[in-house]
Amino acid sequence: MFSSRLYLLLHPGTQLCRAHLRSVHKFASLQKTTSLPPKKFQSLVYPFSDLEAYLDRSVDRTPFQLFQPSFEDMLKAEKLFYSSPSHKIDYYISAERMEHVPALKPPEVCFIGRSNVGKSSLIKALFALTPEVEVRVSKSPGHTKKMNFFRVGKSFTIVDMPGYGHRAPRDFVDMVEPYLYTRKNLVRSFLLVDGSVGLQTADLIALEMCEEVKCPYVIVVTKIDKCKQGTLLTNLMNLQDVVKTQTTSCFPQPFLVSSPNFWGIFLLRCFITHVTGSITLMDTSQR
Hints:
With 287 residues, the chain is of the alpha/beta class.
């Protein structure tokens, strides 16, 4: 597999077991996508490109294209998602209360969203280059009951938060709000919204919470493969209107992703590494 050869090139002296090789997603490595036809490559890396043709000419496309890193920048970011003896990626700990949360120095990003919006699946896709990392994914809503911490070497930490809405833990607010208000090394929150159904009442409440905290956050539109383009575009434009009129701390660009198909994963990886200060990109806007 090309991705395994790239791994060995990036980390000489490292041996990979056969089980590891078999479990790597065919599009886990950005290099693997270069064999795709240009249009498919564009759709995989920049999913919004598929929707542009359906937008009226009067619609401002700028908010959807603020973060457009180069192929080289995304390759640079991808290196951080390969585990090695000197850069270990692993599940670290789970916590139910702030007093149980470990004091970690690296910058953190957290993922928040409704139950069954696809938080764990997205994190698993981000870590697809290191499939031995244990990210539990369930088809049942409300599977995540604790704050789960994943260390990416000494570069940054990703936190999978419990879902809100259906079957959320009764003490969800007691877990999440103190973390958002007091976690000093939290640099960005990612609020996940199901692209097939759009913003729900619970999402608007979560958005208000993020606004109150005043920590920069980003909206990630998940499951874009689960609906027709017309439905996705309608939900996306409604979302963009809310961001424009009701937010001050939200990054204007929504990130479109499909975890099973890997659409948008490379762009999101690059953004995470950028906002945590793990890599520096040129000619990108940030809010």
